[in-house]
Every structure is written in structure tokens, then in C-alpha cells.
Amino acid sequence: MENLDKFYRHFERPPFAPVYYPTAEEFLDPLAYVAKIRSEAEPYGVVKIVPPEGFKPPFAIKSETFEFTPRIQKLNEVEAIVRERLVFLEKLTAFWDLQGLEFKPLIVEGKNIDLFKLYKTVNNFGGASTVTSKKLWTQVSRKVNVRNSHGVGSLKSYYTKFVGPFVAVLEAGAGIQEDSLSDTETKDEKEDCEPTMQGRRRAPRPKGRMMAGLPQPKRSKMPSQKKKSDPMENVFCGVCGSGDDEDRLLLCEDCDKSIHTHCCQPPLSSVPKGEWRCPSCVAKEVGKIGLNYGFYDANVKYNLFTFAEYANKFKTDYFKVKEPEVGQ
């Protein structure tokens, strides 16, 4: 938030937009006139064109067939500082939801802590590692109005558990690089391999191997035939590269990458109850949040008449006036 203050405290008025007064002859072709003044008007970003007296353009829209989808614009979300906070909180919540893990707000001393302010404060002190090494958590807690020592511990623990991993994944862009995955897992194998996951965990392989130290049974010679391999034999953890502990291997809902629960960052003590996604897919989905913040397309299409009815009804209800007075 602090990095935006300068735009509010040291605001410089932009130059006034020019106003153009074309003659009737110049405005015979309005688009040609706009093209003519474009080079000198563009630097201002906006200009005003006052058409000549008597200019009456024809109504170009066919009102009987024209339909449109209105765009909803929430002005309180467009403002930069508010928008930054809302986008941060939405991304943080989605980050944990996409991994099937429950995310709870931070309440200390009976107060709901502003997580965006906490994040910015830690960042201003140099990041979580610097705050921890220099023992600055007490100073951080004061910035977010937490006073007692127990609250400082809760603040540090919460940040380390919930905010830290979120920040780390976003800064890295993607938690697991593609080349860290096993070379044995090819595209063809992915397509041929039917998911046999229960709760999106990898199903254990059949126990056909002998335990170490026990004698191996003698095998009789059989006619040579192609050995059918279990496709799940080629599923490995994308972090440690091991295919062991099958019951602890999680399968991403989006890309089918596998990772052990104990190889996740942070490590998971149990298999998530909901859907789980790998860090790469989480970072990709979270990165989409906020791109069109404050602007949403409505779910209903209107024509000119139905939208006029909708607008009049809104103004009637909002301004508490009779319908005939709405257009005044």
C-alpha cells in the first residue's frame, strides 16, 4: 500500500484535453475527421469533439435485433489500494482451496488480523527469513496492532504456515519445474494410464515381490511372451523421484503429476479430503485471479427495450420515485 501513496500525496494534474470544433464540411465524414486529428490528439488520451450545429447522425443500431451483455463495474474494487488488498486475499484463499486444504482467517487477541497488511509489513522488513533471523516479529506484530507475546507467537506461526508457502510459490512462478519430473513418465504413458486413484491417491501395486532375505521361488521355463507392465509402475513422485509409499502419492486433478504428501511444501500430515493440485497448477490458476478485477460480464443479455425497463426499475427502486419521473 505504501508504494502507492506517492501517487496520492504528490499528484500532478495532467494537461487539459483539447476541444475540437469541426466545420460542417470537415465533419461530413466523422471517422475521416477523427483519423485526421489522431496524431495530435493521441498524447492526451482523451479529447472532446463538438459537432457542427445541425449535425444529426442516423441511428445505426437495429433496435429490434440488437442484443448486448452489460458489464458490471464495482467502483470500490477499481480503486488501486482496495483492489490490491482484495486480489491478495482472493489469491491466498484460492491457493489453499486448490490444494484441498482448509484456510482460516487469523484471529489474535479477539481481532481479525488484516493479512494483506501483515504481508506488506513482513515484506517491508525484508521478508520472513530476515524477520525471523533478526528477531523482528515483535516489531511486525506492533505494526498490525498485536501487543502481547502470545500474540506474536501466533502471528509468526500463522505466517509461516499459511502466508509463507503462498508467497514462495508465487515468487517462484511454479513450485516444481517440468524437468524435475521423471523422464520415464512420457506423454504416451499418461494417455494410456487409467487413473486408479482412491481419493486421488495412487493405488498400491499388487504385492508380488518377495521380502528381502527370503529365498526366491524357482521359476519353470515358460514359452517366451511379451511381459505386460503395470502402467502404475511408471508413476513417480515429481520431487524425490521415488515410486514407493504409493498410498502417500497425491495425483494432481489438472495435470496428473504425482507428489508424496511428505514431499509437499509444506509437508502434509494426511491426504487432503478435497481435490488436490500440484504447485505448478496452483500457481497457474492463482495467477489468473485479478486480471479483470472490478469488471464482470452479466449473466443476462438485453436488447435496448429490456435494458431500458431494467434501468427504469432500478432507478425507481433506488431513488424511490414514481416510474414516470425516472427519466427526468
Average pLDDT number: 76
CATH architecture of the domain at 76-172: Orthogonal Bundle
Going across the major beta sheet, what is the strand order? 1-2
Q: What helical percentage do the residues reach?
A: 25-40%
Order of SSEs: HEHEEHHEEHHHHHEEHEH
Q: Enumerate how many helices there are, as a single number.
A: 11
Report the principal-axis shape: elongated
Region (Disordered): 179-230
InterPro entries: ARID_dom (IPR001606), ARID_dom_sf (IPR036431), JmjN (IPR003349), Znf_FYVE_PHD (IPR011011), Znf_PHD (IPR001965), Znf_PHD-finger (IPR019787), Znf_RING/FYVE/PHD (IPR013083)
Domain PHD-type: 234-284
GO molecular function, one term: histone H3K4me/H3K4me2/H3K4me3 demethylase activity
Write a structural description.
- Residues 179-230 are annotated as: Disordered.
- Residues 234-284 form the PHD-type domain.
- InterPro entries: ARID_dom, ARID_dom_sf, JmjN, Znf_FYVE_PHD, Znf_PHD, Znf_PHD-finger, Znf_RING/FYVE/PHD.
- Residues 82-171 form the ARID domain.
- The chain has 328 residues and is mainly α.
- The protein has helices spanning 2-9, 30-41, 75-78, 80-97, 115-124, 128-133, 137-143, 149-172, 187-192, 279-288, 304-319; strands at residues 19-20, 48-49, 71-73, 107-108, 111-112, 249-251, 258-260, 295-297.
- Among the domains are: 1-57, no CATH class; 76-172, DNA polymerase, domain 1 (Orthogonal Bundle); 184-202 and 233-276, Herpes Virus-1 (2-Layer Sandwich).
- Helix 2 links the parallel strand 1 (19-20) and strand 2.
- Residues 174-222 and 224-230 have low confidence and may be disordered.
- A two-stranded parallel ribbon has the order 1-2. A two-stranded antiparallel sheet has the order 3-8. Strands 4-5 form a two-stranded antiparallel ribbon.
